[in-house]
Amino acid sequence: MQVLIDNYHLYLRGLGTTLRICLYAGLLTLVVGTFIAGCRVAPLTPLRAFGTAWVTVFRNCPLAVVLFFMAFGIPALGVNASYFVFGTIGLALYTSAFVCEAIRSGINAVSPGQAEAARSVGLGFGQTLRLVILPQAVRSIIPPLGSVMIAMIKNSAIAGAFGIGGDLYAVGIRQSSAQGEAIIPVLVGVALGYLIITIPAGLLLSYVERKVAIAR
Amino acid sequence: MSEVSTDTPMIRVSAVDKYFGSLHVLKDINLDIPRGQVVVVLGPSGSGKSTLCRVINRLETIDSGAISVDGVPLPEEGRALAELRADVGMVFQQFNLFAHKSIIDNVTLGPIKVRKLGKDEAREEGMRLLRRVGIADQAEKYPAQLSGGQQQRAAIARALAMRPKVMLFDEPTSALDPEMVNEVLEVMAGLAEEGMTMLVVSHEMGFARRAAHRVLFMADGEVVEDAAPDTFFDSPESERAKDFLGKILTH
Which residues span the membrane (chain A) (predicted)? Predict the structure, then answer.
């Protein structure tokens, strides 16, 4: 276990990088996922088709393939950015399909009469969704959305494996293979790092869940 | 009661057909409702009366025919449709108040977001309407805290807050406990007296006799009778109407 104590600053930095990936990817995926969910319940057929296609592609492609495309495909098209950006975007796009479906299931849990009443007072589709449906859907969205977000945090390790560099996963790999440290303690350190993020995230989610359950 | 019907009718339904799958729910419906007329639609369950009510603000689409409100044909989806719906008040059997908003917020949401009224102005107008329907003291409560009758009166206030040209009522008292029916009917009768154009799907015969100018009896997707309330209730012409009235009058 000495390796953890000696290299604690590396682990801390790795934790910081992983946190940053998750924060950016998390925010992006919430925005994209909500937008796609809006498309999937829109009255216009082309929007619905777009939403369905999006979910079909990103939910059914392995994350590694999405990240591979971001790492090698997009630069080949002449778009240049650091792999931190590509990896984060890839992780967000992949996760957005699951965010979309969590949100859509919440939308479907709201009684259709609510949308009818909203449309009847003259609210447009976007207003109906934003002012009437989503605020009521939140309660049933939070639990599945929480699982999706925790899965995303763990999936950030795959983005790390693609060479974002400096995140928790990369720290572990470097220490065990490049520096020849014993693998078990190194991985224990990496696992602890992820738990430090995911467990509070889970607690935060159950707090939010209780909060929105009462507010009504 | 006689009506002046020289100008465009408030609601015009011409040759409307509607199917749910293979079920023909509206069969070649033609109906003109002049400005200020109160029409009560009744008929057995499954006769298409609720669907008729719902196609008028396009909560249900039609398969053929045309509908216009105040001379304007019903638009397809989009902004124009939303604008038309703002002018057509709708009251539902299940109230459908916004469950996450207080009563006053239910009433002011449309005026603020659609009519672009200021918050204070909308609230003032909303409170006036809540006083009118007799639930001003419930303004800050949530829908689930109110009785059914109070919720339905709030729903009527919400629709009125948009200053609609027409009010559609889809079985407004059918989900209410018997002792709450009258408080809702009284509000509706008051509206009728003020000259609101109304289409009311309801079996409340007392209301139909007192407030309606005209009764439509529907069966199997068709308008079978179209008469003044007293004529219809006292001497229905068709067998189906006699049979229907026999069933609801014997109790």
Answer: 21-43, 63-86, 148-170, 182-208
